[in-house]
Design brief:
single chain; 295 residues; alpha+beta; four-stranded parallel β-sheet; 33% helix
């Protein structure tokens, strides 16, 4: 199997996957170097060539997306368009461009999770401070403000004071940002991260005594989690709701134990999970890609 890994050769994940990819060919390519040549004779004879530097992505059996670097709106749209055209020309892209676009957009992914009947925190997305303050009251005067795009807890803060909420809403309005507020879930100090790899699910419990945010990148303590059949089914439903084959699903229990689906990450990390479970997650990913290739 020939794998084109969209990521940096400096990345821990590149080295982990290369180690696990015994018997396969794994080549790192970058979003920055993506380029496309289009030659047309007629609609039926459209020819699109997509490369990353000297590497033709048409020679890959699968393109594995392992990063989502920042860029201008034009760059981000172009990169997703390129992956979409590549998939249309028969190259398998994991996760699919649509899944990545959906998961990275908190409003879209949360609305799809809710539409799939999954429990999510009450959420309001709006563009004016006035609308945000009305939402602040409806959400009980205690909200978590999140950037529409972002991960690993960056740019997330809690607001439970009306004056602070108004200042935050005004600042976001002036920046022409979307104001995305979720009702704060009173939780017992931990959350659950479940990594979905096809039909398999692996999990850990994350607790942070010094921060209500429980991301491993923010110093949370990680412990192995027994993933029950019910928990695995919930995580797989969440991954399917955004169309992801490989996904990190964040679940938060409230005080009575009821789980809420917070987010689905379509470019999930597993470094903390692998160490916590003593599990070769990279091998699980490679084996899944090989086993699920079209015959």
């Amino acid at each position: 199997m020939r794998i084109a890994l969209l990521g940096s050769t400096e990345s821990w994940y590149f080295h982990d996957l290369r180690r696990a990819a015994t018997g396969h060919v794994l080549t790192a390519v970058t979003f920055r170097d993506l380029a496309s040549t289009i030659a047309t004779g007629s609609v039926q004879n459209e020819s699109v060539q997509i490369d990353s530097g000297p590497v033709s992505l048409h020679t890959a059996d699968v393109v594995l997306v392992r990063t989502m670097p920042p860029g201008s709106l034009e760059q981000v749209v172009f990169r997703m368009d390129v992956l979409g055209r590549l998939a249309a020309h028969g190259v398998r892209v994991v996760n699919s461009p649509r899944a990545i676009e959906t998961a990275v957009d908190k409003y879209l992914s949360t609305s799809l999770l809710a539409a799939a009947g999954l429990p999510t925190p009450s959420t309001v997305a709006c563009q004016t401070a006035a609308a945000a303050m009305e939402a602040f009251e409806r959400l009980g005067g205690d909200v978590v403000c999140k950037p529409l795009f972002g991960s690993e807890g960056r740019g997330i803060f809690r607001l439970n004071d009306p004056d602070a909420a108004y200042r935050a809403a005004r600042m976001l309005e002036q920046q022409q940002a979307v104001i995305y507020w979720q009702q704060f879930i009173d939780h017992p100090g931990f959350d659950l991260r479940v990594l979905v790899v096809g039909d398999k699910a692996f999990g850990m419990r994350r607790a942070n005594p010094n921060d209500w945010r429980t991301n491993a990148s923010r110093g949370a303590r990680c412990e192995p989690l027994e993933v029950t059949a019910e928990l695995a089914a919930l995580a797989r439903r969440a991954a399917r709701a955004v169309g992801a084959e490989i996904a990190g699903v964040d679940l938060l229990p409230n005080r009575d134990g009821r789980l809420h689906v917070l987010e689905v990450n379509a470019v999930p990390g597993w470094r903390a999970l692998a160490g916590t479970l003593r599990l070769d997650v990279a091998r699980e990913v490679i084996d899944y890609l090989a086993a699920s290739m079209p015959r």
